[in-house]
Amino acid sequence: MRKINSKFITTFVSESGSFLQNKDYFGFVELDKFAIYVIADGIDNDADLESAKVAVSSIISNFSEAPSMRKGLLKKLLNKANKELITQSKNLRLKASITIVVTNYVKVRYAFVGNTRFCLYREGFLKYKSQDQSLTQQLVDKERVQLDKIADHEERNNLYCYLGQDQKITPYISKKIKLKNGDIITLFTKGIWENIDSSEIRDSLVEASESQEVTDNVEDMLLSKQPKELENYTLAVIFIDKIYQNPKLRQKIKKTILTLIPIILILAVISCVFYLRHKKRTEQTNEMNYCIKNANNYIKDENFIRANEEYKSALGLAKNLKLKNKRNDIDKHFKLTEIIINADKYLQDLKYEEALDEYLLAKEKGYYADNLGKDYIDERLSETNQHILVLDLLKQADKKMELEDKQGAKQDYISARNLASKIFFKEAKQEAQDKLDKINEDQAKKEEEEAKKSEEEEKLSKEKFDEQLNAIEISKKGDVSYSIGSYYDSKMYYMMAQEIYKKIEMYDFSDELEKKILLTDKKIQESTTKKAKADTYIKDANNKFDEGSLNEAKILYLFARDIYEEAKLDDDVKKVDEKIKVIDALINKKSPQNL
Question: How far apart (Å, rounded) are the C-alpha atoms in residues 340 and 361?
C-alpha cells in the first residue's frame, strides 16, 4: 500500500547529442514497497551492444526479485552488473558509469560507480550531491583543482572505478536519507553536467511546477548553448509530492512503547547489573593497579617478600578480571620476586653456588619483566661471586698446604682474609686468619728449630774443622814417611787420617787417602819382594864368605846392598856395608904387598 499512498512523479529525457548512437540509458521500477531508479552512461565504443542498457536491465531485474534498501543488496546488484558486462563483452570490453537510487517511499539511498551524478534538492537548495570517481575529483579533494572547473578538466573522464573492470569494484553507497514532501531528486550523465551546473538545474526546478517542465527547461538550456560536441545526455527528475504516511503509526508507536517497556525494564536491570559489575571490575582494576604500584615501591626499597605478596594479590585480581596480557606481565614480575627471594635465602644459608644459579636466573627473567630489581640482582651477583671466590681461595690454599707449598698457601689465605673482610664474610675471614696463625706458628717453630740446628751445626762444624786439621796433620806425616820409604809408618798415618775423615763425613778426602793406602800397600809389597831377593843374596854371600870366597861374597853383598838401598832399607844397608868392610879388610890382608 506504500506506492498507492505516496506520490513520486518521474520524467526523463535521453538523447544521443552530437553522436549517432545514444549510449546512455535510464530505467526505473516502482513496486508496492520499494522503487528503484537507475541511470547509466556507456563509456565504451562497442556499436553492437549497449553497455548502459545491459547494466540497468541487470540491476532492475535482480532488484525486482528481492527488493530492499540494504547496503549489501546494492553492492551485490552492482557486482552482478559488473560480471554481466564482462560476460557479454565480445569485440570490445563493455564499460559503464552508473547511479542507483532506491526508496521505500519514506527514505532514500543512492549508490554509484563512475561519474554519473545524483542530486537531492530541498526547499530550493541542493541538500545532497554525489561525487565522481575520477582523477579530477581527487584533485578537487586535494584542492589542486577548483570545484567549478570539473566540467572542463581534461581528467574528468579518467575513472578509477567503473562497471566492466576486472578488479574488484568499490562503489560508493550512501546512508539512508529521510525524505520530505517537496523533495526533488535528479539523475544525469556527463552530457548534462559538462554543460549545465547544479545551480542552473536548481533554477529550472524553482521555475517549474512539475517534473516534465524541469526536463524540458534543462534540455532547452542545454541546446541553447550549442556546444561544439555534445555528448549523449540523459536527465531524470523525480518529484516527491507525497511520501508514505503509515496510518497505523499511532497504534504502532503505542504497541512499540508497550513492547519496549519490558525491554527497557530488562535493559535497565541489565544496565544496573552491568553497572554494578563494571563498578566492581573498576574497583578490582584499581585495587590491582594499587597492588602493582605497592609492589614496585617495595622493589625500590629492596623488600622483595612484600613485593611478592603484592604481586600475588594483583595476579589473583588479574585472573578474576580475565586480563590475559596483564596477568602474563604480573606473573613475570611475581615469578621474578620468587626467584630473588629463593636466591636471598640460599645466600643467607651460605649456599653460594645455589644462590649464584638463582641470581643468574633472576637476571635472565628480569629482562622480560621490565628489568625490575636489576641493580639489586647485580649487587647480589657480585657479592655471591666474591663469597665463592673467597671459598675457592681457601680451598686452593688448603690444597697447597697438602702439597707443602706453605708460602703459596699463605698468600692465598691472606687474599681470602682481605676479600672476606671487605665483604664482611666473618666466618671465612676467621678461618683464613686461624690458618694463617697456624702457618705463622709453625713457621716460628721451624725457625726456632732451624736456629737451634744451625747452632748445633755450627758447633759440629767447628769440631769437624778441628778434626779435619788433625787429619791433615796426620796425613802429612804419612806423606813424609812415604817419602823416606817408611811405608808401614806411612800406611799407619794414612789409615788414622782416613778414620778421622770418615768420622766427620768428609768422604772425598777419605777416598783420596784410600788411594794412598793402596799405593803404600803396593810399595810395601814391592819392598818385601826386593828384601827377600836381597836376603837371598846375603845368604849366598854368607855361604861364600864361610867358604873363603871373599870376592864372590863381596859381589853378592854389593847386589844385596843395591837392592836394600833401592828399597830404602837403611838398616840393612848399614849391615851390608859393615860386612863389605870386613871383606875388604880381609882381602887387603891377603894381598901380595902384605905378603
Answer: 9
Backbone phi and psi for residue 370, each to the nearest 5 degrees, phi listed first: 60, 20
Please tell me the distance from the alpha carbon of residue 1 to that of residue 12, in angstroms, as a whole number. 25
At residue 252, the pLDDT reads 64
Residue matched to cell numbers 621474578: 336
Instruction: Report angle CA 154, 159, 165 to the nearest 5 degrees.
Output: 145
Residue 485 Ramachandran class (φ > 0 left, ψ -120 to 50 alpha, else beta) = left
- Identify which of 153, 56, 138, 61 has the alpha carbon closest to the alpha carbon of residue 97: 56
Cβ density class 218-249: b for 16+ within 10 Å, e for less: bbebbeeeeeeebbbbbbbbbbbeebbeeeee
Residue pair 419/392 in contact (Cβ under 8 Å)? The answer is: no
- Secondary structure (DSSP) of 312-339: HHHHHHHHHHT-HHHHHHHHHHHHHHHH
Interatomic CA distance for residues 578 and 408, integer angstroms: 85
For residue 509, give the DSSP letter: H
Mean pLDDT by 10-residue block, N- to C-terminus, for the chain (595 residues)? 90 92 95 96 87 95 95 95 91 92 96 95 92 91 85 87 91 96 94 89 84 90 89 95 80 72 84 84 88 88 88 88 87 88 88 88 85 86 86 86 84 86 84 85 82 76 78 82 74 82 80 82 73 79 83 82 76 83 83 52
Separation between Cα atoms, residue 36 and residue 212, nearest integer Å: 19
- Give kind and range of the element (H or E) at residue 120: strand 117-122
What is the Cα–Cα distance from 468 to 474, expressed in whole angstroms? 10
Collapse the DSSP code of 15 into the 3-class scheme (helix H, G, I; strand E, B; otherwise coil) and give the result. Answer: strand
Check: CB of residue 189 under 8 Å from CB of residue 121.
Answer: no
> Residue 593, SS3?
coil
At 307 the pLDDT is 87
Angle at 272 between CA 270 and CA 278, to 5 degrees: 100
Label residue 332 exposed, middle or buried (CB < 10 Å: 0-12, 13-18, 19+).
middle
The span from the CA of 172 to the CA of 99, in Å, is 10
CA distances 86 to 27, 54, 94, Å, are: 21, 11, 7
Q: Given phi > 0 = left and psi -120 to 50 = alpha, else beta, which region is 373?
A: left
What letter would DSSP give residue 416?
H
pLDDT at 249: 59
For cell 570539473, the residue is 150
- Residue 438 is predicted with a pLDDT of 84
The amino acid that residue 311 corresponds to is Y
Kindly give the pairing relationship between strand 24-30 and strand 107-113: unpaired
Which helix (H) or strand (E) segment holds residue 126: the answer is strand 125-129
Return d(Cα 37, Cα 322) in angstroms, integer: 52
The residues near 550 (Cβ < 8 Å, ≥ 6 apart) are 544, 583, 586, 587, 590
pLDDT at 595: 39
Residue 429 has a pLDDT of: 85
Q: Which domains does the chain have, with CATH numbers?
A: 7-245 (3.60.40.10), 506-595 (1.20.58)
Cβ within 8 Å of residue 523, ≥6 positions away: 482, 485, 487
pLDDT for 350 equals: 83
